[in-house]
Fold this protein.
Amino acid sequence: MIDIAIVDYGMGNLRSVQKAFEHVAPTASIAVTSDPNLVSKAKRIVVPGQGAMRNCIHELETRGLRETVIEAATHKPYLGICLGLQMLFEESEEGNVKGLNILPGKVVHFPISQMKTADGQKLKVPHMGWNQVHQVNQHPLWQGIDEDSRFYFVHSYYVETADSLSIAAQSQYPFPFTCAVAKDNIFAVQFHPEKSQIAGLTLLSNFAKWMPHS
Amino acid sequence: MSLAKRIIPCLDVTNGRVVKGINFVELRDAGDPVEISRRYDEQGADELTFLDITASSDNRDLILHIIEEVAAQVFIPLTVGGGVRQVEDVRRLLNAGADKVSINTSAILNPQLVADASDHYGSQCIVVAIDAKQVNSSDGSPRWEVFTHGGRKATGIDAIEWAIKMQSLGAGEILLTSMDRDGTRNGFDIALTHAIADAIDIPVIASGGVGNLDHLVNGILQGHADAVLAASIFHYGEFTIHQAKQYMAQHGIEVRL
């Protein structure tokens, strides 16, 4: 049986996610797969993703993975990364597309007119680079990661959750936005732990061991 | 506290080795790419950029093996450029472990490639590299022109207009190299960097000419760059990335330490 299934729906840097998990969980069986059967049998699933939301939802549907991912998100440890976070919500401004509707809220674009620092300097979109992650709530996945550690981000859209209790972390650009959510067996992040050096690898290592129901 | 400015060491790779040239010629060996990548990662590099300057296509697959090997050991973003001609090349590099792909000459020959690649893989992974050189303009104000083929061919295209066009086609970032400064160690072309960084909404990486740590500071504070790229000051051990970051922090620049 597969310990960690990395869901392959033809988007994003799956190899990077795979290599990072192989590094932190060398004894685990890790598979990059688009087979719904393997995904539904895996002990934990990781949904990475980069690119455009509309393609992402479309690819999930064509590969018969949409229901599998929704089902997995109801009961087994689920790690969403970037689009794997955004797709959990009701809808996205990016291409006006419906998400998987697992968490309440929507995905919106950084408002270009507000992208300025306090002293008036322009802030670029995509939000690209290393930003501080402020842990809002305690969670097993933050274990060993210092408060306000820097993680690598690259995105133009962010989530506006309607359930403030699910906010696990926030970052600032230039206003505070949600960069991690946690609810039951779901943990999902806007940043890229697989590209965030020690802090990121610690988070992935924590996920590989996480037992949400115990 | 917010987003940190990035320091990006650049590795010019040919025949499986890292080399460094002056004004795009006279190559000097600087070492093994995997070893160098690991060293920069340990020193706190924010990203790594690999430019495949291999002329023959026989050796082109070497860069894929290098990227695979680096990506298995170094967990920071990797950008790869050089010889990207079609969407398929982008896919192969991303599959090897690259996070971003840099397109230069091919963007000029076929701008649609930038649109197709960013449509398919997202603009976050498409970097357009611009090699610019200052030229005389009729009214005497500075003007920069885009060059291709490693700086040998003039295109007649205005660098600022080109950056704006690349942003509109879906580029997620611009890697801006001053051909006048590259390899000179006289510092970035600040006027060029400033002009392009202020003209677009996507991040700009300043490149070409770094000879000391003040140049890095100037690239950010005066050039308005979001990231600074350098090669020789790091390759030959003059400064570590950590020293560079501490120096930038002392000058009020937010960095990841």
Notes: The mean pLDDT of chain B is 92. The interface with chain A takes residues 1-6, 41, 46, 71-73, 75-77, 94-97, 99, 119-125, 172-173, 198, 201-204, 224, 226-227, 256 of chain B (CB under 8 Å). The longest strand of chain B covers residues 126-135.
